[in-house]
Amino acid sequence: MAPTTSRDPAPPRVEAVEGDITREQVDAIVNAANSSLRGGGGVDGAIHRAAGPVLLEECEELRAGPLPAGLPVGQAVATGAGQLAASHVIHTVGPNRHAGQTNPALLRSCFTESLRIAEELGARTVALPAVSAGVYGWDIDEVARIAVDAARSHRGRSVEIVRFVLFGAPALQAFERAL
Ligand code: ADP
């Protein structure tokens, strides 16, 4: 018989808010990283600044260990969260449109893999940014459609709330349209 403490796999509540993802009080924050895992601009830079140097140290340990060539596009990996209020950072690498990475399945994979890792971590609440909608050049409406569809398709025993945290009103409106 299944343990009574574990709920049946269920879809999460999916929501969108405007804000700075580094301020989120959730179990896991998803980072739109780059393959090097060595930090960058945009939301990646903001998360590293807010988490403190320990986050980069943990990323360097991944490079020195299981990920010598970095994290491939569409995959996700977890670290601790340093000084953030969250317990975990889940790093994922979005496809870069400017580098010819235009396959929507790769972008969808960023969201599904991040949520799969969140399940493994036992996270109940997860905050995600609009992966690839910044420097990597994807249209915000396309990102929103793919992200919302991936989140709504998720089925798990742990993740109950998926919150997209968007920078600026146009990004929020795109996610509200997709919802
Ligand atoms: P990518 O390289 O995957 O495109 P970016 O960081 O350039 O990643 O942008 C992804 C999205 O994150 C953009 O919509 C950008 O406006 C947004 N963003 C940047 N900083 C933050 C932040 N602190 N909180 C939430 N979203 C952010």
Write up this protein.
36% of the residues lie in helices and 18% in strands. The protein has 5 helices and 6 strands. The model has no long low-confidence stretch (mean pLDDT 96). The chain is globular. By secondary structure, it is α/β, with parallel strands linked by helices. Bound molecules: adenosine-5'-diphosphate. The site of adenosine-5'-diphosphate has 20 residues, from helix 1. Adenosine-5'-diphosphate binds at residues 20-22, 32, 42-44, 46, 94, 129-136, 165, 167, 171.
The global form is globular
Which hetero ligands occur in this complex? adenosine-5'-diphosphate
Query: Strands of the largest sheet, in order across it?
Result: 1-6-5-2-4-3
Number of strands: 6
Uncertain segments are none
Write down the Rg.
15 Å
> Helix amount, in percent?
25-40%
* Class based on secondary structure composition and strand pairing: alpha/beta
Element string (H = helix, E = strand): EEHHEEHEHEH
Largest sheet: 6 strands, mixed
Q: What is the averaged pLDDT score?
A: 96
Number of alpha- plus pi-helical segments: 5
Q: How is this structure best summarized?
A:
The protein is of the alpha/beta class and 179 residues long.
Blueprint of the fold:
Blueprint: E1 13-18, E2 28-33, H1 42-51, H2 53-64, E3 76-80, E4 88-93, H3 104-121, E5 125-128, H4 140-153, E6 161-166, H5 169-178
Parallel strand pairs: 1-6, 2-4, 2-5, 5-6
Antiparallel strand pairs: 3-4
Helix pairs in contact: 3-4, 4-5
The structure holds adenosine-5'-diphosphate (ADP).
Residues 20-22, 32, 42-44, 46, 94, 129-136, 165, 167, 171 line the site of adenosine-5'-diphosphate.
